[in-house]
Write a structure and sequence with these properties.
Shape: elongated
Distance between the termini: 77 Å
Largest sheet: 7 strands, mixed
Number of helices: 24
CATH architecture of the largest domain: 3-Layer(aba) Sandwich
Helix content: 40-55%
CATH class of the largest domain: Alpha Beta
CATH topology of the largest domain: Rossmann fold
């Protein structure tokens, strides 16, 4: 990160927007950069005004434009006649503005004009303004002159320093399972990591990775962008999908050091399309256990914000957090709901969706350690850029389950509710539920449980058969849509199951005619 900031300053960028919630760590990094370049470091805040790194007050003005005016007053009226010493006095400065995004989100025209003039002077004098805050809000009038830099979350080295410092302060011996503890802290800021470590010492009397993981899950969830999903589901809980399962089995060691030494490129992920209720989300949970990687769910609906720049910042936060937690599985459920209509997005939200997509697509091709598991019910709503080779390793199609798969699903669902599948004729039930999805089969058994509970007895075969008759499967309600999805998938996708129904159970092809 230090190298990136140095490069921008040496390249003459007049302004940098440094986005982070870790103000102290970022200020320390900027101080190191200033020292390396031989620059003076000044800092402005609303409470203190403009001060030097030693705390000397240069400008008492706490108004947003006060420091900008102070910088302007330093410049000789006729720069062409100024001496080298006078120009040197004006330049070689790194001026950090704290929380300035609050004034730039809905800026005063006078402030924008003053900043435009200052950025022009900064280019000529060799000084750089740094807008340091938890968000980026750059007015369109100056955005071409501002480089946006997302301050990286701390790596294992920085987190180890936090852990060792806490242990030293509290007289606690550094534990042997250091790697496990550091792994559990990845994705946290240094402040969050210190709080989680402290809580672990208070509640467990030791540094406990499980406690830290729990705190991290709460922190990630609080962001409203990502959420850790705890799941005990394995492929034994999923009926069918033998093709997909074999594919995943082959790649379960893809993140290992052995795979890297072998020269294998890191896998990118898969897109799973198919009918609703077909078990696409369930398969993502099972994949997490198969690969022994945490499952992080992204809610695309929460990636949109109402303030200028907020949506883009949320996308950056999602990417940054996923990379910090890696290796992990990033679960993008029903991805079409977040990306649908991006082409016309500029008409409604100023092109926010398009800019988010431009951030997401390049990252998907280089997201080392982040395995993307995306699902979609309506492939026609996805942008074509997402579908090209290089974004995903494979596109799977999930069809309605075959008869054998439906029997497996009946066995799994009956056992899930603590009943013995052998009591029921599941082969017969599989035939009776042709055209049902896994979700519809589960619901039929739940209905049978309710009926039996009302009569204070266990559900019988007759209860289940009666429940089946009351379910109107999606294959009947949306037969044409499902057939259209099948037609699209043929030749474009890989089947998730060798036994997927080749012929429609949507009522198509069952008409009787008289010759």
């Amino acid at each position: 990160m230090k190298e990136r900031i140095e490069e921008l300053i040496r390249a003459g960028y007049p302004a940098i927007a440094l986005v982070t919630s870790e103000e102290d760590r970022a200020k320390a990094e900027l101080a190191s950069v200033a020292q390396a370049l031989g620059y003076q470091l000044w800092t402005w805040s609303l409470s203190t005004g403009l001060t030097t790194i030693d705390g000397v007050k240069l400008c008492d003005e706490g108004k947003p434009g006060g420091a900008v005016q102070f910088l302007a007053d330093l410049v000789p009226e006729d720069m062409g006649q100024a001496t080298e010493e006078e120009l040197e006095k004006c330049g070689n400065k790194l001026i950090v503005f704290l929380d300035y995004h609050m004034f730039l989100a809905q800026p005063n025209p006078m402030l924008v004009r003053a900043l435009k003039d200052e950025l022009k002077r900064a280019k000529e004098l060799g000084r750089t303004l740094v807008f340091l805050g938890c968000k980026s809000a750059i007015p369109a009038e100056i955005e071409k002159d501002v480089a946006i830099v997302d301050f990286d979350l701390p790596d294992k080295g920085a987190l180890k320093a936090v852990m060792e410092g806490l242990c030293s302060t509290n007289g606690v011996e550094v534990p042997e399972n250091t790697d496990d503890i550091l792994e559990s802290m990845l994705g946290m800021t240094t402040t969050e990591a210190e709080c989680a470590l402290s809580l672990s010492l208070v509640t467990k009397k030791k540094l406990d990775p499980a406690t830290i993981w729990h705190e991290k899950a709460q922190i990630v969830k609080k962001s409203g962008v990502l959420e850790f999903v705890e799941t005990g589901i394995t492929f034994d809980n999923v009926g069918g999908y033998d093709e997909a399962r074999a594919y995943y089995e082959m790649r379960r060691r893809a993140f290992s050091d052995e795979a890297k030494a072998y020269g294998l490129p890191p896998p990118k992920g898969v897109l799973v399309v198919g009918v609703q209720g077909g078990g696409k989300s369930l398969m993502g949970h099972a994949l997490s256990n198969l690969m022994s990687r945490p499952l992080i769910k992204c809610d695309f609906g929460n990636l949109r914000g109402g303030i200028q720049g907020e949506s883009e910042q949320k996308m950056r936060t999602m990417i940054q957090t996923a990379e910090a937690v890696a290796p992990c599985i990033l679960f993008m459920d029903e991805i079409e709901k977040g990306l649908a209509g991006y082409a016309s997005d500029h008409m409604t939200t100023g092109g926010t969706g398009g800019r988010q997509l431009q951030m997401l697509l390049p990252w998907m091709e280089k997201a080392n350690g982040v395995y993307i598991y995306a699902t979609s019910n309506d492939i026609t709503k996805l942008p074509p850029e997402l579908m090209r080779k290089g974004r995903f390793d494979e596109i799977f199609f999930v069809d309605l389950p075959s008869c054998d798969e439906r029997k497996d699903i009946w066995d799994i669902q009956i056992a899930k509710y603590n009943r013995d599948p052998h009591v029921y004729l599941t082969a017969k039930l599989a035939v009776q539920t042709e055209g049902f999805t896994g979700a519809e089969i589960e619901q039929a058994f739940i209905d049978a449980l309710y009926s039996a509970f009302a009569l204070d007895r266990e559900p019988s075969m007759q209860d289940v058969e009666q429940a089946i008759k009351s379910v109107f499967p999606l294959s009947k309600l949306m037969g044409k849509e499902i057939q259209g999805l099948r037609d699209w998938a043929k030749g474009r996708t890989r089947s998730a199951s060798t036994q997927s129904q080749a012929k429609a159970s949507t009522g198509q092809g069952k008409r009787r005619i008289k010759a």
